UniProtKB/TrEMBL annotation:
UniProt protein name: Uncharacterized protein
Annotated spans, Disordered: 1-31
Pfam families the UniProt entry points to: DUF6490
Organism whose genome encodes this protein: Urochloa decumbens
InterPro entries noted in UniProt: DUF6490 (IPR045501)
Spans traversing the lipid bilayer: 38-56, 62-85, 97-117, 123-144
Keyword Transmembrane helix: yes
Annotated keywords: Membrane, Transmembrane, Transmembrane helix
UniProt entry tagged with the keyword Lipid biosynthesis: no
Residue stretches of biased makeup (Basic and acidic residues): 8-26
Domain of life: Eukaryota
Length: 150
């Protein structure tokens, strides 16, 4: 055997870093499908705590509570749809429906935040916020439906 295949003093051959990468990738993706990464879990915990604090600080302001609740529900549904979208088979009917759901949820969230933000701003700034939201939504639509990935 060649010298570079054996470690000095060990009986084990050195492995090629590229060898077996497909098997490791399949095993990693299978375990990733069943578990939620710590960073994602931390993000949801952070989102939940901030939502609870926002509801508490609203002191009974019903529109504020509804905005926080709707935004929280929208974000949770959006992340769930994105996770399902990533798992769905390419060019499947499920993946197409999930893409539409992601776009609708993103649109609702963008419009809700634009409305909420523009309601506390002077008219010229409110118009700018609404224009930026419209441009963002058109860009998201083009990215999702008009632009074909190669």
């Amino acid at each position: 055997m060649a010298d570079n295949q054996w470690r000095s003093g060990d009986e084990q051959p050195l492995r090629d870093p590229e060898a077996g990468q497909e098997e490791r990738g399949a095993a990693d993706s299978a375990s990733a499908d069943r578990s939620m990464p710590c960073l994602t879990l931390f993000g949801f915990l952070f989102l939940t705590i901030n939502s609870v604090i926002a509801v508490y600080r609203s002191q009974g302001d019903v529109p504020a509570v509804m905005f926080v609740g709707a935004s929280y529900a929208d974000l949770v549904l959006l992340f769930a749809c994105l996770r399902l979208y990533e798992r769905a088979a390419a060019d499947s009917w499920t993946r197409r429906r999930l893409k539409i759901a992601v776009w609708i949820l993103t649109t609702l969230l963008t419009l809700a935040f634009a409305y909420r933000l523009s309601s506390v701003m002077p008219l010229p700034m409110a118009a700018l916020v609404c224009a930026m939201a419209a441009v963002a939504l058109v860009g998201i639509y083009n990215a999702f439906f008009a632009h074909r990935a190669h």
